[in-house]
Amino acid sequence: MMAKNTICLWYDHDAQEAANFYARTFPDSAVGAIHRAPSDYPGGKAGTALVVEFTVCGVACIGLNGGAAFKHNEAFSFQIATDDQEETDRYWNAIVGHGGAESECGWCKDKWGISWQITPRVLTDAMAQGGEVARRAFAAMMGMRRIDVAAIEAAVRGDAAPS
After folding, report:
1. 31, 52 Cβ separation under 8 angstroms
2. What's the number of CA atoms in the CB half-sphere (13 Å) around residue 118?
3. Paired residues of 31 in beta bridges
4. Using CA atoms, how far apart are residues 71 and 120, in angstroms rounded to an integer?
5. How far is CA 83 from the centre of its chain?
6. Residues facing residue 1 across a β-bridge
7. What is the Cα–Cα distance from 146 to 117, expressed in whole angstroms?
8. Given 52, 71, 90, which residue is the final one in a domain?
9. Calpha distance 114→89 (Å, rounded)
């Protein structure tokens, strides 16, 4: 049964491939039902996957294979909270190394154009503290692509960034 509130992501034709990648990459993620076209339609044949139900870190999603009419952009992203550098690197490398691209400040994009924020908890905790701690953590983050946990921790302490 589909969740009452579900994020719908538009793909050209490869929602099932994307869902399988997310299920392999992130915990509490899985591919559910695959709904196939009951007949031929403009741009597709009977039996092709139209809608793929899946979860990403427990968030209910569907992938709609709608063709090339609409493209993803940074107005939507998944934010994945990580506990340490190893987890940050694992997710970052999985996305970027599987045909994705790096961006700034912990953002990257997967091969299907979905944006991801791979965000260590140390950064969000520092920002929540506000004041000088948040300013230092924010300044450190602004020069990064993948977030460097040690550099954020150093900024929180008020130390010079490690070399």
Report:
1. yes
2. 31
3. 54
4. 28
5. 16
6. none
7. 9
8. 71
9. 18
**Structure tokens belonging to residue 154:** 């150093």
pLDDT tens across 105-153, in order?
Answer: 999 999 999 999 999 999 999 999 999 999 999 999 999 999 999 999 9
Question: Which single residue is written with the structure tokens 């300044």?
Answer: 139
- Is the domain of 51 the same as that of 80? no
b/e sequence 134-149, b meaning 16+ C-beta within 10 Å: bebbeebbeeeebbbb
- Beta-carbon-side half-sphere exposure of residue 55 (alpha carbons within 13 Å): 13
| Tokens found for residue 53 | 């139900």
- What's the pLDDT score for residue 20? 98
Indicate the length of the chain as a whole number.
163
Single out the residue in 71, 92, 124 at which a domain terminates. 71
Distance CA 52, CA 157 (A): 45
